[in-house]
Design goal:
Helices cover 25% and strands 23% of the residues. It is built from five helices and eight strands. The protein has helices spanning 43-54, 63-72, 81-89, 115-124, 136-144; strands at residues 4-11, 58-62, 92-95, 108-110, 130-133, 150-156, 176-183, 189-195. The protein has an eight-stranded mixed beta sheet with strand order 4-3-2-5-1-6-8-7. The longest helix has 12 residues, at 43-54.
Length: 198
């Protein structure tokens, strides 16, 4: 079985919306886009993110995150190639009700039918870990079905006051176990958690 790993950058109050740019995602009037940008220059952050991306066997995206990645990474500058190469060359699976095949980014495939069922099938196949980026709705659905094996969180010392989150507001108690952590020079916490029952 393959592991399903969620990689998310979040504020201290749990917001994951629009971490990189001011116009990345203005849904519900969100006006703090780009809150994570100052933390991307930290070498600890860069090393961990590059290793995480390079270590995955395939990637899983929701539609919006896929479109953002597909617009940048195929033509990424030379300085970004350590991240661009695996993203461009390895399989990518996309959950979407609106996109149509074939997808323009090389090695990208639409998950057929129900996304949760599709990811469950992928997990049962052989191969390297599946890494999910952003994709708040998809992560919430995968979490609801107990499919997530690990959370790799970058928690920035920022409060956004509201916005999209990956963790559901459903009243359910789920306990996680910290397996690795590191603090960057900008004060961000890199924390890896797994469900406590695994």
């Amino acid at each position: 079985m393959r592991r399903l790993i969620v990689s998310a950058w979040m504020t201290l109050d749990g917001v994951v919306q629009a971490p990189i740019g001011p116009d990345e995602d203005r849904d519900s009037g969100f006006r703090h886009g780009g809150w994570h940008r100052p933390h991307t220059v930290d070498p600890v952050f860069q090393r961990r993110m590059t290793a995480s991306i390079a270590g995955a066997g395939a990637y899983v995206f929701g539609r919006r995150t896929y479109e953002e990645f597909a617009a940048f990474w195929p033509n990424a500058p030379e300085a970004e190639q350590a991240v661009a190469r695996p993203l461009n060359e390895r399989p990518k699976y996309v959950a979407s009700r609106t996109l149509a095949a074939p997808l323009p980014w090389a090695h990208a495939t639409l998950l057929p039918g129900d996304a949760v069922a599709g990811v469950d099938v992928l997990k049962r196949e052989s191969g390297g870990d599946l890494l999910v980026f952003g994709s708040t709705q998809l992560v919430g659905a995968l979490d609801a079905h107990g499919l997530i094996d690990e959370y790799r969180l970058v928690i920035d010392p920022v409060l956004a006051g509201g916005g999209k989150r990956i963790f559901r507001d459903d009243g359910a108690l789920r306990t996680l176990r910290l397996v690795e952590h590191e603090v960057t020079g900008t004060g961000a916490i890199l924390a890896t958690y797994v469900p406590a029952d695994r």
